[in-house]
Amino acid sequence: MPSGNCDSEPQSPESTVSAQGSQADNVLNHLCGGCHVLPKPATKTAAEWPSVVWRMQTHRSQRAMRLLSETEINEITEYLIQNAKEQ
Question: Of the four, 47, 51, 53, 55, which is 20 to 30 A from 61 by CA?
Fold first, then answer.
């Protein structure tokens, strides 16, 4: 069970994004991966990722889940942007 973060089972390690050892990795796997399979950063452009992260924050609010802190949002967004597909 994903520590109260979502109603679904946590995703398997092979389905997660890897930023091994980083805070973004921990947040992505624990908070994001607890609800859905994590997309590979290269599936979207750097310009697309910020709105995706904010959309997920809205989903968390609607489900009465703990919201990500500003620091967590920034770390996740930065990681996704750095590893995004070329435009």
Answer: 47
